[in-house]
Amino acid sequence: MSQLLTTVGPMAKDFKAPPLKDVARPCYVRDMAGTTTVRLDDEDEAILALLSEQYGGRSSVIRHALKALAADHQRKDGLRSFLDEWVEDVSNDEVAAMTERFGL
């Protein structure tokens, strides 16, 4: 299979999913949530299948992934703001190195 699945597979054995606190939220069980269609290739389907066993289903995996992506985006925005302020106290080379290191 693909390199990504090779990396994800062994890690999954030791992986402990966070509590499934939002699986039974009222908006999900009362048909109040929206529906979004996502096209996935075979590799993405395999990853989704692997994670859905631990996160309580495909939809739950996608909700967790969206929350994780949003948190990552907020962290990067915070780091960008910090670097923008930090550039006033240090050299541009140091800021450029940090920007490259964190993929900003």
Segments where pLDDT lies below 50 for 5+ residues? 1-13
State the order of secondary-structure elements, H for helix, E for strand: HHHHH
The average pLDDT value, as a whole number, equals 75
Q: Count of helices?
A: 5
Number of strands: 0
Helix fraction, binned, reads: 55-70%
Q: What portion of the residues fall into strands of 2 or more residues?
A: under 5%
Structural class: mainly alpha
Number of domains: 1
Principal-axes shape call: elongated
Radius of gyration: 19 Å
Distance between the termini: 31 Å
Largest sheet: none
Question: Can you walk through the features of this model?
Answer:
The protein is mainly α and 104 residues long. It has one domain. Helix content is 66%, strand content 0%. It is built from 5 helices and no strands. It has helices at residues 3-14, 26-29, 42-55, 58-86, 92-101. The longest helix is centred in the C-terminal third of the chain and has 29 residues, at 58-86.
